[in-house]
Structures are given as structure tokens and as C-alpha cells.
Design goal:
Helix content: 40-55%
Strand content: 5-15%
CATH class of the largest domain: Alpha Beta
Mean pLDDT: 93
Number of strands: 5
CATH superfamily of the largest domain: P-loop containing nucleotide triphosphate hydrolases
Order of helices and strands: HEHHEHEHEHEHHHHHHHHH
CATH topology of the largest domain: Rossmann fold
Low-confidence stretches: none
Largest sheet: 5 strands, parallel
Length: about 325
């Protein structure tokens, strides 16, 4: 991957490539933006460009240094991610030990801290000292979806590189060019902030299955009776899809929004375009306020999952709730 191959995030690319061209690489960068918007890909591309022996402001992908990065075995790149729920002080100390061994090189070492907001207070304070006095030339790349959660002193010592959720039409076109099914890609771009996250979703076998189950439940919930409860029991919980209820509620949220779009003949905005005939037929069966209420119920049900409410109970209450409109 090179900068020119990365779609979107033009501001981030400009900041990083300007630094490379002008030989003014900061000792620390703060990549801040929505999770899944491509920060890790950009970080590794930047590291590749720093080490690349052929290009000034990009990665050639061909030289030995670039190939080492691509294969994940470059000795001067170190990636830290949460160990369990947090990044611990021991992880930062290990990093400091690795960097204490000096080596002759015209390039600095690079370390990437993913989900940097999950550093413990002790880890953050230890990192701060490391940022101020690295034992050898180093470039830090801190990746976070919440830059304000980091210590103000770390923020002030890092060059901010902003990331934004990518344009959905751009993502959909890129995914289509890569051969992903349109009906799945149209859902994925509404659930992810960037192409990396979209691809990750689309490559999961369960995603197409959970979409199909949601469509069946959505159609069954338009009538009365217990058909949707039976389907949920058989296809979700007995079918091994019970771990993906959060995505199910996300898809329901889009489904109800499609009903509103159809009510106002905004067919170009509909996500489940392969279900247009059914959506158009039933959209006016309920008022906009009722569909909005269903959307709110989906959001509330997903929130309950985060607070560890029993998944099956949560879904059953949701299905009963949306049947009543």
C-alpha cells in the first residue's frame, strides 16, 4: 500500500507527505478520528515511506525496507495494542527497553500505539517521559477515536493528523470495483467509517446470514403473531448467530429508515434496494413517527446489550415492541 493507493483522507496524507518532502518529520503524531477510518493503514504506509529507499514522500512497495514492513517483520517498527481492556505500563516499559538498544541507521525507529486512549494513567505518564526523552531517534504514532481522552501534555507534544468517516458513495464504488456484492456493500458502508472496516465486515461469513435473518424478521414483524419470535429462536440462537445481535439492531435501524425514505419517494437513499418492492408496499402502513419510534427502539436495544442485558430477552422485547408500531 502507498499513499496514492489510499482512497480518501486527503488532509492526513497531505500533512504526512509534506513532512516527508521537507524532511521535517515530527517525533509524535496523533491520528484521531472514527474507529475504522483507516488510521492503521495510514500509519504503516507512513512508516514504510520513512524507511523507503526509493521514494521521498511515498512508499515504493518494492525495496527491501518496504517489503519488510509489508511482511510485518521490519525490526524498527513496533506496534502496541491493548492487553485485555487497557494498555499497561509494562507494555510501555518493554517498548522503552527495545528502544534503548542503539543501532546505526539514518532512519528513526517507529512505534504505533493502537487505541491509545486505553492507556492506563501510569502507562500514559510513562509514555510522556518517553516522548520527551527517547533514548534513540523515534517516531510515535498514536491512534485513537477519542484524542481528547489522552493526557493534555501528550496531545500538546503530538502533531495532530485528523481522520474523517469516508464518503459512503466513494466507499461503495471502491467496494463494487473490488467485486463485493452490492446488496451487502450498501449495508456495510453505513456501518463503517472507512474501507478497512467495510472489508472486515464483508469478509465475515455471518454478515450475509444476519442480513437475511433481519429481512425475514423485519417482514414477519409487519404482521401479528409469534412468527418472528420463532424465527429468532431457530435462526439466531440455535443457528449460532446470537453473538451478532448488535449488528442485527444496526441493520434494523437502516431498515426502518428505508421505510421513511420510501414514504417520501427518496428511493435513491434506500439501503436495502433489493427489497424495494416490499418496502414500497408497506412503508405507508405506518406513520413517519412510528418508524422513527422503531428506529429508537433498535438503538435502545443495542444500548441494552452494552449493559449486558440478556440478548434473547432483549431481542424478544424488541420484536414485540416493533409489532405494536
Amino acid at each position: 500500500m502507498s499513499f496514492k493507493e489510499i482512497i480518501g483522507q486527503d488532509i492526513a496524507k497531505q500533512i504526512l507527505q509534506n513532512g516527508l518532502r521537507e524532511h521535517k518529520i515530527s517525533h509524535a503524531y496523533l491520528f484521531s478520528g472514527p474507529a475504522g477510518s483507516g488510521q492503521m493503514t495510514m500509519a504503516l504506509t507512513f512508516a514504510k515511506a520513512i524507511f523507503c529507499t526509493e521514494c521521498v514522500d511515498d512508499a515504493c512497495g518494492e525495496c527491501l525496507e518496504c517489503r519488510k514492513v509489508e511482511h510485518g517483520n521490519h525490526p524498527d517498527i513496533h506496534i502496541i495494542a491493548p492487553d485485555g481492556a487497557s494498555i499497561k505500563i509494562e507494555q510501555i516499559r518493554d517498548l522503552q527497553r527495545i528502544f534503548s538498544y542503539r543501532k546505526e541507521s539514518k532512519h528513526p525507529k517507529v512505534y504505533i500505539i493502537d487505541q491509545a486512549e486505553k492507556m492506563t494513567v501510569q502507562a500514559a505518564n510513562s509514555l510522556l517521559k518517553f516522548l520527551e526523552e527517547p533514548p534513540s531517534p523515534a517516531v510515535a504514532i498514536l491512534i485513537t477515536d477519542n484524542g481528547q481522552a489522552l493526557l493534555p501534555t501528550i496531545q500538546s507534544r503530538s502533531q495532530k493528523v485528523p481522520f474523517q468517516a469516508m464518503n459512503m458513495k466513494v466507499m461503495l464504488q471502491a467496494l463494487s470495483d473490488e467485486g463485493y456484492p452490492e446488496q451487502l456493500a450498501r449495508c456495510a458502508v453505513h456501518l463503517a467509517a472507512g474501507l478497512d472496516e467495510c472489508r472486515e465486515i464483508l469478509q465475515q461469513n455471518w454478515f450475509a446470514e444476519i442480513r437475511n435473518v433481519m429481512l425475514q424478521l423485519g417482514k414477519e414483524s409487519m404482521g401479528k403473531g409469534s412468527a418472528s419470535l420463532i424465527t429468532a429462536q431457530q435462526k439466531l440462537f440455535k443457528g449460532g448467530l446470537g453473538d451478532y445481535l448488535d449488528r442485527l439492531f444496526d441493520l434494523f435501524h437502516l431498515w426502518f429508515k428505508d421505510m421513511i425514505y420510501a414514504s417520501y419517494d427518496q428511493h435513491e437513499s434506500i439501503v436495502f434496494i433489493d427489497q424495494l418492492e416490499f418496502i414500497s408496499k408497506v412503508a405507508t402502513a405506518r406513520s413517519t413517527e412510528e418508524w422513527v419510534s422503531c428506529m429508537a427502539l433498535a438503538a435502545e436495544s443495542k444500548k441494552k446489550l452494552r449493559f449486558h442485558v440478556n440478548g434473547q430477552l432483549c431481542l424478544e422485547q424488541f420484536l414485540i415492541g416493533i409489532q405494536g408500531g
